[in-house]
Amino acid sequence: MTTEFETPETVSWHVAAPVSAFPADGGACVKIDGRQIAVFNFSHTGEWYACQNMCPHKMQMILSRGLIGDQQGEPKVACPYHKKTFSLCTGENLNGDSYRIETYPVRVDAGMVYVGL
């Protein structure tokens, strides 16, 4: 299974963790190449998403504990502290603010979750 992203050939896939390490319809933080990455398991739709763990609003490493859902079909995460919301597909701030987040492609293979950097 691969999340619907255009994946450039230059993407390097990194093991994040086994599927069982991620809560159903929730997120967890993994560290890859010195970066904190928030990985989300949308188990109700079978989709996976990844983004930077740092919320750019207050520079806190917290997005993996954010509330996930969708906004008019767009998968999103809301910072648990200040409820700033971000698209998990594009990284766009859905509150209209100018700051955004980095997003990463995700794939699942043989029970393992991989993140593309």
UniProtKB/TrEMBL annotation:
GO terms for molecular function: 2 iron, 2 sulfur cluster binding; metal ion binding; nitrite reductase [NAD(P)H] activity. GO terms for biological process: nitrate assimilation. InterPro entries: NasD-like (IPR052034), Rieske-like_NirD (IPR012748), Rieske_2Fe-2S (IPR017941), Rieske_2Fe-2S_sf (IPR036922). Residues 13-115 form the Rieske domain. Keywords: 2Fe-2S, Heme, Iron, Iron-sulfur, Metal-binding, Nitrate assimilation, Oxidoreductase. PANTHER family: NITRITE REDUCTASE (NADH) LARGE SUBUNIT. NCBIfam families: nirD_assim_sml (TIGR02378). This is Nitrite reductase small subunit NirD. It comes from Spirosoma rhododendri. The gene is nirD.
